[in-house]
Structures are given as structure tokens and as C-alpha cells.
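Summary for the funding panel

The consortium committed to producing paired sequence-structure records for every protein in the target list. Below we show the first two records in order, beginning with the earlier of the two.
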Amino acid sequence: MESSDKSHIIAPCGMNCAVCSAYLRDKDKCPGCRIENTNKRASVDRCKIKNCEFIQKDNLEFCSGCEIFPCKRLKNLNQRYKTKYNMSMVENLEYIKDFGMEKFLENEDKRWTCSDCGGTICVHKGYCDSCGKIYWSIKKMVKIDLKKDDKEFYNPSKSEPSLVEVPEMKFLMIDGEGDPNTSQNYREAMEALFPVSYKVKFISKREKSKDYVVMPLEGFWWADNMENFTDEDKSCWKWTAMIRQPDFISQRMIKDAINEVEEKKDPPAIYKIRFEKFKEGLSAHIMHIGPYSEEGPTVEKLHNFIQEKGYQFDGTKPDQRHHEIYLSDIRRTKQERLKTVIRQPIR
């Protein structure tokens, strides 16, 4: 797949038509969704996404420009392609939106080019269209989801606290202070952590053929004087915003990701990112369901549990800070349904 001047070959849904079996065939070759041609398959002309009323009405180039992106129809298509072909249209569109078409096409070129002959790997068949080298049967990527693989750390009871032994994990981290609702530092931390995390994921797919779900945002929270650690005044709060990384992610991959994001977007807080291992050890945790502002009773229940079990903690110490894991996407989840793991390391 040659990346030069191929932007027209990316369909509105995010499908890379250049690796489609209909595009690669010799007889009755399909030119792609965007090119008017009689060789197109009838299913292309009937495509409900291509002919979507929102795309037509607003003259959108991609579904990612729609206010309901990703819609149910695109989600269903995306799930089918992720399961059968290791391609995610939604991830493609999000990458294009964040890093631009040129960078996306560069990555696609590397991902779908045969290592033996330089031909194109067909997404639907799993082998090189030129030399026939088989890929899917020998190195098909399975998407790793650490929330499911390590569910004991991410799915505690919402009714009763419990104890858990948390092992060493790798994180991207940024430190800061101030009210997370109003602090520019916190907003800038988000603008750095997420683009770098997604870039690392793409590097992993490209270099290691390992795909995974980007982990949710987490945070350590404390104050120099824990008596001031209250909802009434969050201006004195200190925090570490962080996103877990799989164990196979290396320092070099993180550095490459930071360099690429810095080159494209240059978020102000990117220089604050550090890549570290962290072990909490024995901890108590519970699931909170609802708005962040209503965590008080859940935290109190957790602290009472710790005291009843004969343990203690000092929230000012680096290895004993109040820890929250934000499992829900706040942009798409109603406040009353937000899921947050509240964890407290204990000694």
C-alpha cells in the first residue's frame, strides 16, 4: 500500500479501502467508496453509512465530524471488523482527527505492507495480495483488555469494601495541584496523557503486532495537610494523573510516542510526562456509582472498613495516597451511572 495521495481511499466510516479485497482484485476492481464508478459493488452504493442523512446534510467528510459519533450503526460495523479483521474504523477516525491524515496513512502503509515483497496485505483475507504470504494464521492480533484480564483490580463490589493485593504496574504520570474542575494544569495533563497513550498503542500495533484497549484515567489525590483534603476547597489538592500501560511497553516506545505527539500537537504539559513502575501492595477498594461529587459516603464506608480490619494509612505518603480509577467516559455517561473504583493502600 503506497501512502502518497491516498486520502481519497479512506471511506467516511474510517475503512481503508486500499486493503479491501474488492479494491485489490483484478477483475471488476472497486475504486473505493468515494469514487464514482460502475465497477462498484452494489453494497457500496447501498451503504447506509455512506448515504447517512447526517453525512449528506452536513456534507461531512468523515463520520467523526458528526455530533452522534460513533452512532449505533458504526459501532456495530466497527465491532464486526475488530473481531474478524483486527481493524477498527472508530480508532482510525479518532487517529485521523488527532494526528492528521498524512500520519495516519504513514502508519497504514507500515501496517499493511508485506514484509516479504512489499505488496499489500488484504484485511479480509489475511494474506499478501501479491505473493500470498499468510499473516492472520500466524500472527493475528488479539486485543488485550487489562480491565478484563485483571478484573480483580477494576471490578470491586459496590456494596461492600474488600482487600486486594495490587502488584507493580507501569504508568504514564503527570503531577500537579489545584481544583481538577477548574485547574488549567489538570486540563493540560489530560491533553498530554491521552494522545501519548493512544500513540503508544499504535506503535505497539505497528512494531509488536500487539493491540490493546487504552486504559482509563486514574488519579492519586492528597494534600500536604489532609485536614484540608475536603470538597469545600479543592485549590490545595495535589494530584498525580496517570494511565496504566501494558507490561510489554518499553521506555523507547514511550519516547517515540512523546516525540511524535510533540511534533504534531505539542501539548504544553507533554514535558511533564514520566513513565514509571508503581506498586501499591495491600489495599482496600470499593466501587462508587454516581457523580464524583457524591463520593463522600462511599469513601467513609471504605475508611470504616479499613479501621475495623485493624489497618491504617497515611494519605500524605507517596505509597498510601487516595486512589481513584475512572472507568466511565464522562462525555458519554450520565452522572448517576459513572463508575469509579476508589482504592486506599493500607499498612
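The next record, for a separate protein in the list, is shown here:
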Amino acid sequence: MDRNWGRRAWEVLKAVGRFLRGRVRYRVTQGGLLFLLALTITGSGAFVTGNNLLFLVFSAMLALLLVSGFLGRLVLLGLKLELMLPRHVSARANTDAHIRLRNVKRLTPSFSIELAGKTDPLSGAPPILRTPVYFPVVPGGEAVEVPVQVTFPYRGRHRENLFVLSTRFPFGFLRREVSIPIATETLVYPAIEPGAHGETLLAGLEGEAATPERGRGQDFYRIRPWEASDGVRMVDWKSTAHTGTLQAREFAREDDLSVEIVLDRTIPRGAEGRFEALVEECAWLVWTLSDRATPFALLCDGRVETEVYAALRLLATVQAAVTRKGGEPPESSGESAARVWLSVWSET
């Protein structure tokens, strides 16, 4: 019986120790420094002079400091954080999300809470939340949800995001901070950016698709007399005003374009940065072709993807393979009007 009582007492002491140490960090503010200076002067004067009034003021100031620490710690207890992201997220893009701060304390509200992102101490990755969010009050047993913008610095699987909750409540003497990790896996697509060669590749594909025949493309073909079947959209008003009769603008016809994009993940040593840029160019090309309703097929590491989000998921997780010799383009999977071979070796 005595042994069980001693074990329970030891567990209680350890729990109290964890509560006192916890994960809360304290920083003295400028107002706190001034208050500590006034506290030191008042206490010194009370002990030197033996004045009861100074002792009373000193005791009140000391009690105020203790109450400030207790209330500030209580405000940060019992807070849970939830990050709600959209289904599709790209690197280095401002993404609209929602953050829900829940107060699990039934009766005690939390006041003056500031939420900010935190740099990962292991990888050095910058925080995804760039702008702090302020919560004036979170009622007990309730949750407050606010819209935010987050930015993921790189592609891939993000398994943990770090945030910091801080408060100066109630008197602003101390700033208390507690780190909160959110362990939710998020698949981040590559940045949808054309890079140095993306627009050049797309222009080459469009050049292969265009033919010098009348059709419904985007490149100008000729001016001709307007016909009733053309519709008002085809009228060229400048030529009509010049000739006095209705004139229509024709565009060059574009053949149905099907594109095969082959990404070579083999790289020489030291070319990791160029491979990341190549992945982003590939992602931009895939996104642009899909946006223009152009059929495509992405070939990489023995996989073939023809749907835009499946291709982006593949590009989000593809890793470079360091070799001494570059790979060879695989055989075409079908008849395509154009084929793009993306490889670091073609630039070395």
C-alpha cells in the first residue's frame, strides 16, 4: 500500500514538473522590464527603510507578477489547432486555407492569442504561414475559424507543419509562446511556373499544330467578305469601315494536337537544382495543355499518366537518380503529333 502511494505521489510530482516546465517559452517585454525595474527599486527601498507602506506596495506588485504568470499560462492551456487545406496545393503559391482554433476548456475562455508560423529547426524550411493571425477571444468549449493564406516552399509530402501560439495576456509583462505541430500529410504539387524554357516548348508545340488553312484556331489567316454563317463574332469592323461592306476575319486551323511528355529523372552529380526546375517546367506544361483541352501523356520512370492531377501527383513525388550516363527516350506509346523530351543531360 505504501509502495503504491509512493509511486502515485512520484507520478503526480512528475506531472507537476512537466506542467511547470512544459513547452511554454517566456520572453520579457519592454513593459515587463520596466515593471521589474520598478519592483526592484520598491523592494530595495522597503528593505532599506523598513517602511510598511513600501512593503505593502512591493507585495502587491509581486502578487501582480505571479497572477500575470498564472493567467498567461492558463490562457495557452487546452488549445487545439486544425489546418484545413484545399484538395490541390502547389508549391510557392498562395493557397487559401482555414485555421480552426479550438478551446477544450469548458468554462475558461482564452484571450489575446496570436498564431504565427515557425521555421522547421531540422530542415530549415520556412513557415507556411507568413502573416500572423490574431484571435481576440476563444470562448470556452468553442472553436473560432478564420481564413488564411499558406505557402508551401517546396513540392513533395509535408508530414508536419509547425505553428506558434503566443500571448501577452493579461498585463503584457511577458510574452508566452508554445509550439504546436500539426501532423497531417499534405501532398504538394510542383510550382506551376513556366521557368526558362516552358514557354519556348509550348510555342514549338503550337507551331507544329497550326496549319495554313482556314479554321477556328487563334492565329490570323486572312480577311474575306462576310457570310451569313459566320456570325457577328467574325466581323472585322475596321476592314468593314474601310471597304464599306461587311468583312470577316479568318483564323488558321489548328489540328488536334496530342503531346507526349517524357521526363528523364537521371541526372549527373550536382544537378539537383536544375532537375527541380525541369520538374516545374513539366508541371506547367502539363497544366497548360490540360487547360487548353489538349490531350497529353506524361511518361516518367515507367509510368504513363494522361490525367492532369494524376500527372501532378507523379511530379510531386518523383526523385532524381544520380548516374554517370543519361537515359534514352523510350519508345512512343502511340501516334502523337508532338513529343517533348525533358532531360538535364540535354543541357550539359
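Regarding this second record: Residues 17-22, 209-217 have pLDDT under 50 and may be disordered. The chain has three domains: 27-189, 214-254, 257-347.
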